[in-house]
């Protein structure tokens, strides 16, 4: 049966699905990425987010929410990375309950090695292709990817509605 409703976009949708499936298969598998430590794509995303937002001093639940991870999945990643020496935990002086996560100096060294490897292995070619595309088209492609990611979360978002209850 041919899926007529997708029209000329069938091959595009197929590539988005292929990417999603291959990413899902490798998301939790740890690799060395040409470093002395093995870590997963999931752990890498956490590290990247923390590095990019160091000055914000966000607590663990805020970061988990921003990344779309469950608090338990986020905690498991942090615990694994802390054991490897990639992360450090802190408390603020005024609130000992909020745990603030920072990438350790060792974690920063590992990330630097990873990023050099990843750039050469995958991103360099991707960026060369993207350099040939006008910025407004890249912006539109980003919109398509964002819509695609929102579609995969529709059921999850509806089933996990959170209500705030005021503490008095």
Summarize the topology.
Elements: H1 10-26, H2 41-52, H3 60-67, H4 71-83, E1 87-92, E2 95-103, H5 105-130, H6 135-152, H7 154-159
Antiparallel strand pairs: 1-2
The CATH topology turns out to be Arc Repressor Mutant, subunit A
Strand order, largest beta sheet: 1-2
Oligomer: single chain
Question: What's the helical proportion of residues?
Answer: 55-70%
CATH class: Mainly Alpha
Total discrete domains: 1
Number of helices: 7
How does the overall form come out from the CA principal axes?
globular
Low-confidence stretches: none
Q: N-to-C terminal Cα separation, in Å?
A: 60 Å
Q: Can you say what the CATH homologous superfamily is? A: Winged helix-like DNA-binding domain superfamily/Winged helix DNA-binding domain
Describe, in short, the structure shown.
The chain has 168 residues and is mainly alpha-helical.
